[in-house]
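ESCALATION

Customer reports they have been waiting on this structure for their group meeting. Please prioritize. Original submission:
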Amino acid sequence: MKILFAASEAAPFFKTGGLGDVAGALPKELAKNEDVEIRVVLPFWKNMKDEYKAELIDVTHFDVYVGYRRQYCGVKSLKLDGVQYYFIDNMYYFDRDGLYGYYDDGERFAFFQLAVIEMMEKVGFVPDVLHVNDYHTGFIPFLLKEKYRWINSYSHIRTVLTIHNMQFQGIYQKDVLWELYGMGAERYDDGTVVWDGCLNLLKAGILYADRVTTVSPTYAQEITTPAFGEGLDQVLRMESGKLSGILNGIDYDMNNPETDALIPFNYSAKDLSGKAKNKAELQRAFGLPVKEDVPVIGMVSRLSYQKGFHLVLNELTSILQGDVQVVLLGTGMGDQGKMFEDGFSYFASKFPEKMSVSIAFDVKIAQLIYAGADLFLMPSAFEPCGLSQMISMRYGTLPIVHEIGGLADTVAPYNQYTGEGNGFGFYEFDSYYLREAVERAVEVFANNKKDWQKLQETAMTSDFSWETSSKVYLDLFKQMNF
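Update from on-call: job pushed to the front of the queue and completed.
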């Protein structure tokens, strides 16, 4: 089976969030199946590391018409971990410091989507399944069936759209259809691709893709409701027959406490002595007293309302009255982010023996928090899947989560009667219930070592590998082709 995976980012080349993790790990896992030939296509962003640039070869080049604009399109390639990667090269669109957030994002991703489709014949790889992700490539199923339906060699292609976050939909004015895609307005005028008075690329993808997936089963259910559907819940209910949720995995090669080169001491579920040493290193790194018997609560995240950090700030005074330490690594964006950065910095200055923050992002420090903390706080208002809670469990750091989306699918809250679970949770999105969950976790740490050790063992041996999730994707692909 030939699969082409199209995305705007993929680790280890370019990554800003969960999409980059998925696009990096899923194809690598699928490539291990001898019946699968998978290739990935990405924009050739400016910030690729030199070590990968040195391996690139030029495959071909051609022109792509973005509306009336005739644009150069180069195709570069390299092979890594059994996967062939293509990179769409155009300096005018992709030679930027960042990946997103530019005034011409609509034009840039229109070019990329058109280039992906026109590239397939030119590189001699026409897939059985074209797997697109979010709105950046989500218009491709529509383009295949409306703009490029005359190409006979494309007629057998089946498409899968994965929605990583419903908030981002690609919303534009009507004239984008002819200004950027060189198409007529028939499907706009009959209402097919219009939503709330605008062209909506994600809506078009949902309607035209053969299958639609999200990154967790619970999120797949949630987005069919007004509370989580971001205005498209009606469309998703209408297309629910082709909608499913497949839980993301984490890269077990990168996130392995037994081999992780970024942490000072390696350890396993059978021997946690290294974790205790990492805890001491974490406390020293954040300038906190080294105390083995005091639970360390870690947070690694973007600081925003969506991530639930207003609930944390509301309860920090009460939480820090207890015998705990809190460490935070993260940054915010804009005025909202500055408010959170200042708020956490204030508490760190007020309780220097109990709280320390790093307003930054550092992969090495993040891994140290996963490996050295006892608890990991992740109170997101919504979370399509979430990876941090799975990484923390892999390292024996028990998560405290709002039971929503992928967090509900991965974290089984502690049962005080049976001792079962792999973390702690709260259902109502309210600061009181967050504090209650934190206090419950601290109580188990302090007074019930037997259950604590059982929770750690369950967390570390839970299966969040891509091996499991990739089989579900492969079954989905086969259902469409046979």
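Sent to customer with the following note: Residues 139 and 175 are 15 Å apart (CA to CA).
Escalation resolved.
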